[in-house]
Amino acid sequence: MSSILTNTSAMVALQTLKGINQNLNKTQSEISTGKTVATARDNAAVWSISKVMESDVKGFKGIADSLSLGSSTIAVAREASETITDLLTEIKGKIVAAQEENVDRSKIQTDIAAYRDRITSVVNAAQYNGLNLIKGTDAMNVLASLDRDSAGGVTASQITVSRNDLTMGAGTYGSGTALNANAVVSDTAAGALAAAGNTAQITMATGADYSDGEASFAIGGMNFSFAAGELGDGDQDAAAGIVAGRINALGIAGVTASAAGAVITITSTRAFEGAEVAVSGLGGSAAGSEITELNGAAVTVASGTINERSENVTFSNIAAVSDGDGYRVSFGGKTFTYVAGPGQSMEDVAKGLKTAVDGAGMAGITTAVAQDSNGAWQLKIDNSSTTTMTLAAVGNAGGEASGGLFGLDGIDVTTKEGAAAALSNIEHMITRAIDASASFGSAQRGIDIQNSFVSKLTDSLRAGIGTLVDADMEEASARLQALQVQQQLGIQALSIANQAPQSILSLFR
């Protein structure tokens, strides 16, 4: 059946041509934009995913900038702390030179002051965009990543970089929780810090037979023997005098002996070292000789150890040290303070207080820091002056930390005592500067690694986005040529179909 009203062939040809044109338009769009999914209409799901990933790429670009800024800031601090370490090492060399007797300590002190001023200049200049990591104690946070969970939530990840204060500030003593129990003084009595030495006694037995036998004495690490062959019964006073003379003849630094009757008093003025006293007997030839009973009736020792003269402030080996915890020691009308910073320990507290005491330059006062048998850190204070003093210690939380080089401005090598104290204190400061340099170096390395990872991650995200939305140009080119051929054929088919009604006219001729 032929109809001049309905040309089904033309309709089919037209629909085919429309389909070809649509595909051709889509292919041409892919070629011009380079994307198979350019808008949400092309593929809503893929387009949405690609846009989320594109926003992440933009975010990671900002993170890379943040990491670069953080790395540069840390680099400035690291270079500064390394420079300070070198300057402190130079100061140590000057302090070592000041230990000699035949040097001009005042000129050495002038050199030390010059190096100290250079350190102050380095500390003040070590800032990047206004941020100085060697002043203060607040940590710096560097944006390191944006973490997206399966539900689409995003959280920022930070790298925390600790400040390492290398200033010389004294800090501020707080008014928070009392920490007195963490600092125990060995003797709080009036006159606890005095020049008088500590003593032990050896008693030669009254009425003993000193005509035979031998005794061995160990005093402060030195040994000698006492042979009693020249004495007889009841010669305990003479025996005591002989033993006291033998002790003095040993020439033990800070140790002297005196005899009063049968009692030998051994006195030690050693500041930071005790003196052991031991007596033992060696069998004599006379049977039953009492001098062979040297650990019994013949010779007795009232104390086996003479304690060091210094008094101690013992810090708890259990309590933690928090930022702002301050401790004070007082004696001789003066108070000395140290306030701990982040990550410090009781060792730092003890050494900080030692530095504070040494910086005062009090006549006759010397200090040391050591650990007791339980591992607790102690500040030892000795007084060899003629003025007796009372020692006290307290502690409080809530302060502002002292600088990492606290006490550097108090170093004074113009005296022998000051030079000796400065030698141990400068070692602690050098250690602090070295630790700061190492900390900054480690932090910078970690940030650089993260920056490299972020760069690689960004590249991976971009590649993933390309896989989702980018057009395959080789395929699009081949498809374009095929569609162009199809379009030409479709036009030809539509033309043929449109000519079909013309044949009906021949029926009416």
UniProtKB/TrEMBL annotation:
InterPro entries in the record: Flagellin, Flagellin_C, Flagellin_N
Domain Flagellin C-terminal: 424-508
Database matches in Pfam families: Flagellin_C, Flagellin_N
Subcellular location: Secreted; Bacterial flagellum
Top-level taxon in the UniProt lineage: Bacteria
Every Flagellin N-terminal domain range: 4-137
Principal cellular location given in the protein's record: secreted
Keywords: Bacterial flagellum, Cell projection, Cilium, Flagellum, Secreted
Similarity remark: Belongs to the bacterial flagellin family.
Main function: Flagellin is the subunit protein which polymerizes to form the filaments of bacterial flagella.
Annotated protein name in UniProt: Flagellin
